[in-house]
Amino acid sequence: MKKHLFPLFLLFSSANVQAQQDFFAIVGKETSGINFSDFRMLDGINGTSTEKIFTSDSPSKIFSQTRRGIVVEDRNSFNNSQAVTMAALAYDSSNNNLVYMPMFSSNIYMLNAKTKEITLIENDVVRVSSCDINSHITRMTTGSDGNIYAVNNAGAQFLQISKKNGHYVVTDLGIIKDDVSNGKNSFTAMESGFGGDMIADMENNFYVFAASGNVFKVSPKELKAKFVGKITGIPDNYSVNGSAVNEQRKVVIASAKGSPLYEVDLTTLQAKKLPGEQNLHIYDLASKHFINDKVSPNNSSNGIDIYPTRVDEHYINVHINNRNLKGNLKLNIYDLSGKNIIAQTLSVKDNSTDQKIYLKELIKGAYIVSITDEAGKIVMNKKILVTE
């Protein structure tokens, strides 16, 4: 097995290139109502638009998973891949798919960002009614387990979209209810909890951003939404319609009302305006990143760090800055059965090192990364999840 050591400047160079494709957005036309314009890439750090991937006028090729063939959709209905009422988007980095749903529709679409081919997942699990705004799917994100999750306005359907044996399967996980401590800030009430978007953390908990600016933490195990607080630092009439996590693991929000993007500190819920796009109508945001996933060496507590913990680009970064460590350390990667898959030497000079470890021969799954010093003492064990 070949092993590669890359200098640190290449790591930063790679990060800068990746930032240009950090976010995906559903962008609308400059109208007062929802009117889909295009899917596009955004720089998630400065909020600047880059490539348009697919527009309302793009030629479409729709493959139906149920009918196992190409289908022709009615462009005048809500049940089509370019419907005007787009509101929910996630990014499946393992398959390079934009996953989305139009409002007023139970259809789920997988748009390949490279080939532009679209797969239609028809299902009878999603219960969307055109006359019931509570039932519309408006929040969607990728979980840290690699599955797609979506929630309707009232929390009455919490969906998981997973891929099994080459086919997408939709599962209704149940009804999300308010935590008893929420009081008037109800997750299920239109004034305080409807619309918006959601993001995930590395423990597969979800943070739902309501259009009102309220933030709720949702535990999929308990099926409860706990009120976290309300975003400050945005205009009073700002409608939060999109949220995603950028490469620096900062939360960014966007609005459908033709407004700037804001970066939000999830600890304080204080928002800071980004310098990029100032007048985009953004209906939803998506990225491959998660909150509380370590991204930089500054996050390490003992001068040793391995990041990211969710691996979708076939490498991890090892950072060491510890005065008690020197010489040659051993890095071993084990699968969950205890089998040693990768063994590599880390050379520490002047008590520090930054190295990129490539994992291209690892299949999807969970692994333990272990680092030992020259005496054989374990100085760090960390679990990683390889998703691609």
Automatic annotation (TrEMBL):
Signal peptide residues are 1-19
Secretion system C-terminal sorting domain sequence ranges: 306-384
Signal: present as a keyword of the record? yes
What keywords sit in the KW lines?
Signal
Q: Which Pfam families does its entry note?
A: Por_Secre_tail
Q: What is this protein called?
A: Por secretion system C-terminal sorting domain-containing protein
